[in-house]
Design brief:
The protein is mostly helical. It has twelve helices and no strands. Helix 4 crosses helix 7 and helix 6 packs antiparallel against helix 7. The longest helix is centred in the middle third of the chain and has 25 residues. The two termini are 32 Å apart.
Length: 258
């Protein structure tokens, strides 16, 4: 049902183009992308609506920055469209992380965190292997690779997997970093309650010029109300959280029996 709800949303979105987004290829692509993203989301503490929120945060932030002198040559409408379509798969590599680590309620050990960090390389390698097998090279896949591989990089070089800094980090991944952290902060998880919007904004501002590109943070501050509105549009329900609790309890019980 998540997949059909997503595609209904895409078709009825005010900026959907009937000539660009309603072709059989685009329909199939959107459904496949969201199906894969939903599969990944079933295995961590996020609900399915996290995908929709993050996807729309990224688009909103990119639209705000498309006339910025630093980004005007990159943030074209076709680029933003591909970024929007690719965003749901940014965390697909978590599929390859064992439940004992992915679902662990307490702090990860150093060794466990090293395994968790491989979700970036697992996803990138999967896409590259698919490219080689199919003989395909496309802008969509390039942006998708950037998202899965580099969304955990930090502006000051303290992130992973490559320790990139500044403009070495692809713009798509820098946009996703803000979207991902904001949603992680405000959202209730099985093991924690989310923080208020204002607190999340303050935390992201504190990461300006360390975790995040300062110009992206400035744009985020300017459109923070849009982020809050998106969060409210795709808010998790009690039923969403209950399904997630039941799934995680079952997964943890299965692991304990092994």
């Amino acid at each position: 049902m998540k997949i059909f709800a997503y595609w209904s949303y895409i078709l009825n979105s005010p900026d959907s183009s009937p000539t660009a987004d309603s072709t059989p290829v685009h329909i199939a692509m959107a459904v496949a992308v969201f199906a894969m993203a939903s599969l990944a989301e079933t295995r961590d503490s996020d609900t399915g609506k996290h995908i929709l929120r993050v996807q729309n945060y990224v688009k909103s932030l990119a639209q705000r920055l498309k006339t910025h002198p630093r980004f005007v040559d990159v943030l074209t409408e076709p680029y933003i469209s591909i970024l929007y379509r690719s965003a749901p798969l940014y965390d697909m590599g978590t599929i390859g992380i064992p439940d004992r680590i992915l679902l662990k309620p307490s702090r990860l050990t150093a060794a466990e965190f090293e395994i968790m960090k491989t979700h970036t390389t697992l996803a990138c390698e999967a896409i590259e292997n698919a490219e080689k097998a199919l003989g395909v090279k496309a802008d969509l896949l390039q942006i998708m690779k950037e998202l899965v591989y580099s969304h955990q990089e930090k502006w000051d070089g303290s992130g992973y997997p490559q320790g990139l800094s500044g403009d070495q980090i692809p713009l798509s991944a820098r946009l996703m970093a803000i979207a991902d952290v904001y949603d992680a902060l405000i959202s209730d998880r099985v093991y924690k309650a989310g923080v208020p919007h204002d607190q999340a904004v303050a935390i992201i501002f504190q990461g300006r010029d360390s975790h995040f590109d300062p110009d992206l943070v400035d744009a985020f501050i300017e459109i923070q109300d849009e982020f809050q509105a998106i969060a409210q549009s795709f808010v998790d329900t009690e039923q969403d959280m209950q399904r997630k609790i039941e799934y995680m309890a079952h997964a943890i019980a299965e692991h304990a029996e092994l």
